[in-house]
Amino acid sequence: RAKEGGRNQVQFYEPAMHARIVERAAIEGELRGALARNEMFLVYQPKVHVATGEISGVEALLRWRHPTLGLVAPGRFIGVAEETGLIVELGRWVIQTACAQNKAWQDAGLPPLRVAVNVSARQFRDKALADEVVAALHSTGLQAQYLELELTESMMMQDADEAVATVQRLKKVGVGLSIDDFGTGYSSLAYLKLFPIDFLKIDQSFVRDMLGDPTMAAIVRSVISLGHSLDFRVVAEGVETEGQLAYLQRYHCDEAQGYHLSKPILPEEFAALLAQGQARQPALQPGEPSLG
Ligand code: C2E
Ligand code: MG
Ligand code: MG
Ligand code: MG
Asked: Distance from the CA of 288 to the center of ligand 4, in angstroms?
């Protein structure tokens, strides 16, 4: 424990804090070469129409498999990538790879659908983002309507004029736009209406607790109905049970995503689901590592 105000305080760490610092340093050191070493890959989680259960789209989620660190979840490295600026290169790779994958599914004769990619705050502030999106669409041959970018409320709130301009530029390219983790930031729906956004994704924390917590349920119902009156389509994230799905159906939520429907899966597994047209995967085999 650090002695308060003592001269030697930097020599003492809580063990947990020490472990975090070591891990962070390892991640930062290894992240730089990860793309070149082919350690990054994308997994794909379906979104379904709540009313019909049909697959409506798919979200690409980044995974990092390191030879000694193992499978590293984005929660452990996206922040580091942002701070070091590596996210710019990584983000470009994600957009390019997701577009190429989606085009490959279409070329294989699967029903065309939209692939969503997550955009980080730093990428969003990068003036080159819209040009990079255009370049990825052009080089892969994917039509803009089959790409969607997931943004967050905090991106809309920081430097609002600049954000409106960026979002309008992206909209002009023709890609779909959504607000991820909706409800965790501080924006108002009226303010969001300034942005040409297509989807609101209700954060999974509300969905997780809505059946046991009337406040959470009220938030979910309000987002759905206000979202609809402002012409957004509403997507619920983190749907883990049949009961949650039924509740969302009853309140006319448009789309849903979550482990109950499918975990994020490999491209070939997603292609098989898409060929069947429904989003329930068989339970994982014992011992098989989950990519969730
Ligand atoms: P997100 O975009 O909100 O993605 C949803 C996260 O919830 C994913 O975690 C997904 O695997 C997980 N999830 C999906 N369904 C369920 C469920 O039913 N229950 C629970 N408990 N979790 C569920 P993941 O893949 O670990 O990603 C975490 C976050 O990392 C993402 O949140 C996103 O903000 C970020 N991220 C992922 N891939 C990328 C990327 O390519 N670029 C950037 N900038 N960020 C990314
Ligand atoms: Mg997302
Ligand atoms: Mg989310
Ligand atoms: Mg998130």
From this structure: 25
